[in-house]
Design goal:
With 121 residues, this protein is mainly alpha-helical. It has two domains: 1-84, 434 Repressor (Amino-terminal Domain); 86-121. It has helices spanning 4-14, 19-26, 30-38, 45-55, 59-62, 74-84, 86-96, 101-120. Helix 1 (4-14) packs across helix 3 (30-38) and helix 2 crosses helix 3. Mean pLDDT is 84; it is low at 67-71. This is Helix-turn-helix domain-containing protein. Residues 8-62 form the HTH cro/C1-type domain. InterPro entries: Cro/C1-type_HTH, Lambda_DNA-bd_dom_sf.
Length: 121
C-alpha cells in the first residue's frame, strides 16, 4: 500500500471512524476526506500533520517512502516540522524568507556559535 488515500482510508477504518467523523476531527468537510481517499486531492503539510495526529501515526507513515528526483528532503522537513511544531516552523520561515544571502550566512554562523556555547556549558 503506497497510495496516500489508501493509507488514510485503512487507518481511518482501523480507528473505526467513518469519513464524516474523521472530517470533523480535522475540521474539513466529509467530501474532502472522500477526495483524499480517492486520490483526487492532495493535502498540504499542515493537513497531513492533523491527519497523522488524529489517526495516531507518524506523518511519514502517511507518505510514500520514495526518493524524489533531485534528492528532495521533504520527509526530513516534515519530520523536523513535527519535532519543532508547525507554529514555530512557520514563524521561523516567515522571519528568514526575506533575508539576503549574507544575512542568512550570518544567521547560520550565529546558530553555530550558539551550538558551540551550548556544548561548552
Amino acid at each position: 500500500m503506497n497510495n496516500f488515500g489508501e493509507k488514510v482510508k485503512s487507518l481511518r477504518e482501523l480507528k473505526q471512524m467513518n469519513q464524516q467523523e474523521l472530517a470533523i476531527k480535522v475540521r474539513v468537510g466529509p467530501g474532502t476526506i472522500e477526495k483524499y481517499e480517492a486520490g483526487l486531492k492532495v493535502p498540504d503539510i499542515q493537513m497531513i500533520l492533523k491527519l497523522s495526529t488524529v489517526l495516531d501515526v507518524p506523518a511519514t507513515e502517511l507518505l510514500p517512502i520514495t526518493e524524489q528526483p533531485g534528492g528532495s528532503n521533504e520527509l526530513e522537513i516534515l519530520h523536523l516540522t513535527q519535532k519543532v511544531g508547525v507554529t514555530k516552523s512557520e514563524l521561523i520561515l516567515s522571519k528568514i524568507v526575506d533575508l539576503s544571502d549574507e544575512e542568512f550566512s550570518q544567521l547560520l554562523e550565529w546558530i553555530q556559535e550558539l551550538e558551540k556555547n551550548k556544548t561548552v556549558h
